[in-house]
Amino acid sequence: MAKITLDNLAHSYLKQPKSDDDWALKELNHDWADGEAYALLGSSGCGKSTLLNIISGLLRPSRGRILFDGRDVTDAPTAERNIAQVFQFPVVYDTMSVGENLAFPLKNRGADPKYIAERVNAIAAMIGMEDQLRRKARGLTADAKQKISLGRGMVREDVNALLFDEPLTVIDPHMKWELRTQLKQLHHDFGHTMIYVTHDQTEALTFADKVVVMYDGRVVQIGTPQELFERPAHTFVGFFIGSPGMNLFDAQVSGATATVQGVAVPLGDSYAPVAGQVQIGVRPEFVRLHAGGEGLPARITRVEDVGRHKIVRLDVGGTAANAILDEGTPVPAGADRVSFDAEAINVYADDWRVAPQSLQGRAA
Amino acid sequence: MNKTVNQKAWFLVLPVLILVGFSAVIPLMTVVNYSVQDTFGNNVFFWAGLDWFRDMLESERMWNALGRQLVFSSIILAIEVPLGIFVALNMPKKGFWASFCLVLMSLPLLIPWNVVGTIWQIFGRVDIGLLGYVLAKLGVNYNYTQNVIDAWATVIIMDVWHWTSLVALLAYAGLQSIPDAYYQAAKIDQASRWKVFRFIELPKMAGVLMIAILLRFMDSFMIYTEPFVVTGGGPGNATTFLSIDLVKMALGQFDLGPAAAFSLMYFLVILLISWVFYTVMTNLDKRDGV
């Protein structure tokens, strides 16, 4: 187990990257604390897998260093880093039995046969394949194969970190929950540093202590699930996390008031003059619907009842927006105005969150 | 479901039946016809029963040719399959050099068989051939027209030169289909190069290798043109393989009856060995699955 430090790390798949867009991974400084469970969340192609492969040593970064417990391993081969990684699609050794597959990483390191047998049995129990240990891996379902891949990742106890690259994509939903719970349990029991790459926010939020959100090759926010929900540092975080995502409106902000489409919207705090393209963001949970009175004129385009709550699709002066109503709350009759909970409004300039004045000087 | 019975449907199958009849069944049947009859010329035939088959089975000449053929095919497979895999493993995976290698590898496959034979026939000549001349200059006593070992070596090297590409290309196709994740996982699992080959590459190539082995076996077992052009089956009968012997018998000596019996047995042997190959290999495959 180790603390993993990324020092000015950047990567481009091109030999001579010119513009900013040529970098698959933009400059990044970060410490992955020893023993924490991280989720690396982002849409496809945002550089998640690139980052993971750099950590495991399958890819050499174009720039910067990577350190394990302070030791520079930038040029160390994968074997030396002692990392376990599970890939998106199942990798099993077809000609080996399930048990041999699980034992493979241990055997390659010359572990004691008794210890190997012990570990293989423990892991088989964890992935629910005790009774199939002697079966050949070929011809198993994708599900079962991925469980073997996961098992092979977990069989070594002394790894510096466990990396998961969207490992549950091919597993059916019921088993997903179970395996994720087991992974959490494993983390709880052994305290491995875990990095879990996913584009599924539920998976990220339920698995990790800290979620790292990536967008366009950049880490845009690192925080607990609650922080990501309440104070998205970037409009992408607001939009990507939550279902539906955060509503954004173009606005002018002065002091504690934002002006949206000519209507004054009170803010929870006051802001220094903000430059750039200014927007306010508010999550659908904090959008109130009412007939007449204060607020922005809005038109309801659709109401979706998803069981636990209702999603109301709105057209607010040409901007699409959403509101969430509790299951029991009816949509107010003749609703034509929306207002927002002032405390829940975030202000963005050029997509990045602006800290309110009371917090100026402190990290937002 | 109610099935409509319409016997006229048979007419739709008829063209195929006729085609297969003329292209395969009738020619084969003429061979069968010759194999059970004897003739003293003038197109007069009389019944000989299974005599020719008995003769052939007792003929030392045929057994010798079969023996040579089996040795030849075994050597060919033993060299070309590992060599082909080795070449495939060392070919570039992508980029300009990958295409370059592919073209280079395909070249020998595009050369007509008797041209290959002619190339090597000249190449190996001691008086004017590059190989033969150089060897002679180096003091190696090489002469494929007189020395049995030299003749065999020449024929085998020629076949390896001509056909290893096929195995290599098939193996290469198999290798290309392995996703990167397998190699990455192997690195994570700290598998050695040998284990990567043994547990990832070889199993993934198994399917195409089976085809390669089958094709190379059948082709080498039926080889005629190249050794015929180079050695003419000599020195003596040293490189007289089954096909060469068969042609000698049928066209050289005009022994139609024995040659026909010989052909049929030849055909059955190829069929049998191919079937055994195929069955054994697919069964190996299935056994793994359970």
UniProtKB/TrEMBL annotation, chain B:
<feature type="transmembrane region" description="Helical">
    <location>
        <begin position="196"/>
        <end position="218"/>
    </location>
</feature>
<feature type="domain" description="ABC transmembrane type-1">
    <location>
        <begin position="66"/>
        <end position="277"/>
    </location>
</feature>
<feature type="transmembrane region" description="Helical">
    <location>
        <begin position="259"/>
        <end position="278"/>
    </location>
</feature>
<keyword id="KW-0812">Transmembrane</keyword>
<protein>
    <submittedName>
        <fullName>Carbohydrate ABC transporter membrane protein 1 (CUT1 family)</fullName>
    </submittedName>
</protein>
<dbReference type="InterPro" id="IPR035906">
    <property type="entry name" value="MetI-like_sf"/>
</dbReference>
<keyword id="KW-0813">Transport</keyword>
<dbReference type="GO" id="GO:0055085">
    <property type="term" value="P:transmembrane transport"/>
</dbReference>
<dbReference type="InterPro" id="IPR052730">
    <property type="entry name" value="Sugar_ABC_transporter"/>
</dbReference>
<comment type="similarity">
    <text>Belongs to the binding-protein-dependent transport system permease family.</text>
</comment>
<feature type="transmembrane region" description="Helical">
    <location>
        <begin position="96"/>
        <end position="123"/>
    </location>
</feature>
<keyword id="KW-1133">Transmembrane helix</keyword>
<feature type="transmembrane region" description="Helical">
    <location>
        <begin position="151"/>
        <end position="175"/>
    </location>
</feature>
<dbReference type="Pfam" id="PF00528">
    <property type="entry name" value="BPD_transp_1"/>
</dbReference>
<keyword id="KW-0472">Membrane</keyword>
<dbReference type="InterPro" id="IPR000515">
    <property type="entry name" value="MetI-like"/>
</dbReference>
<feature type="transmembrane region" description="Helical">
    <location>
        <begin position="70"/>
        <end position="89"/>
    </location>
</feature>
<dbReference type="GO" id="GO:0005886">
    <property type="term" value="C:plasma membrane"/>
</dbReference>
<feature type="transmembrane region" description="Helical">
    <location>
        <begin position="12"/>
        <end position="36"/>
    </location>
</feature>
